[in-house]
């Protein structure tokens, strides 16, 4: 689901105004900020649709993380927790969402002819190539903010 925010080389689901009310000059462009904003909208809308209590019960995500997601502040939310929240309203399995996302990222890297060291060098997150590989394979955790940075590198390079 998270990979579906990129359509035809632009980011969908992002308004021209950012979450803090300032103009978002990246809206629509495939940048980490635009991707993160789209991910946060997706998670926030899922919490709003399902309700905080239902999300907490069905996902096991801690209350503080659910509250942050409901407020649209999901940058530090793990990809696994974000997928669990989205899965509540998407009628899909959270593990399947994460597996589909990983497949999309790895296929994008193959299409863009990128290796993990190049991805690591292209992001602001303090991750090595090995850490990026571990995150992509599911052997290490990744936040939505890190996902946005990795995905932006891959999507820009695919063009």
Mean pLDDT: 86
Q: In which range does the helix fraction lie?
A: 55-70%
What proportion strand?
Answer: under 5%
Instruction: Tell me the structural class.
Output: mainly alpha
Q: How many domains make up the coordinates?
A: 2
Please give the CATH architecture of the largest domain: Orthogonal Bundle
CATH class of the largest domain: Mainly Alpha
Radius of gyration: 15 Å
Q: What is the name of the CATH topology of the largest domain?
A: 434 Repressor (Amino-terminal Domain)
Summarize the structure.
This protein has helices at 32-50, 52-59, 63-70, 79-90, 94-112, 116-121, 129-137, 144-158; strands at residues 6-7, 10-11. With 159 residues, the chain is mainly α.
Give structural notes.
With 159 residues, the chain is mostly helical. It folds into two domains: 2-92, 434 Repressor (Amino-terminal Domain) (Orthogonal Bundle); 96-158, no CATH class. It is 60% helix and 3% strand. The protein has helices at 32-50, 52-59, 63-70, 79-90, 94-112, 116-121, 129-137, 144-158, and strands at residues 6-7, 10-11. It has a two-stranded antiparallel sheet. β1 (6-7) and β2 (10-11) form a beta hairpin. α1 crosses α8 (144-158). It is elongated. The model is unreliable at 14-27 (pLDDT under 50).
How are the elements arranged and paired?
Blueprint: E1 6-7, E2 10-11, H1 32-50, H2 52-59, H3 63-70, H4 79-90, H5 94-112, H6 116-121, H7 129-137, H8 144-158
Antiparallel strand pairs: 1-2
Helix pairs in contact: 1-4, 1-8, 2-4, 4-5, 5-8
């Amino acid at each position: 689901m998270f990979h579906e925010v990129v359509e035809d080389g632009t980011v969908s689901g992002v308004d021209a105004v950012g979450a803090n009310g300032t103009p978002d000059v990246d809206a629509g462009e495939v940048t980490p900020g635009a991707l993160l904003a789209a991910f946060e909208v997706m998670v926030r809308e899922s919490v709003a649709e399902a309700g905080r209590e239902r999300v907490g019960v069905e996902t096991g995500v801690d209350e503080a993380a659910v509250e942050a997601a409901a407020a649209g502040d999901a940058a530090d939310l793990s990809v696994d927790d974000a997928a669990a929240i989205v899965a509540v309203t998407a009628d899909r399995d959270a593990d399947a969402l994460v597996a589909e996302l990983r497949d999309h990222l790895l296929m994008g890297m193959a299409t863009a002819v990128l290796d993990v060291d190049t991805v690591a060098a292209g992001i602001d997150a303090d991750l090595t190539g090995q850490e990026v590989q571990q995150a992509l394979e599911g052997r290490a955790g990744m936040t939505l903010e890190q996902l946005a940075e990795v995905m932006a590198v891959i999507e820009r390079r695919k063009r």
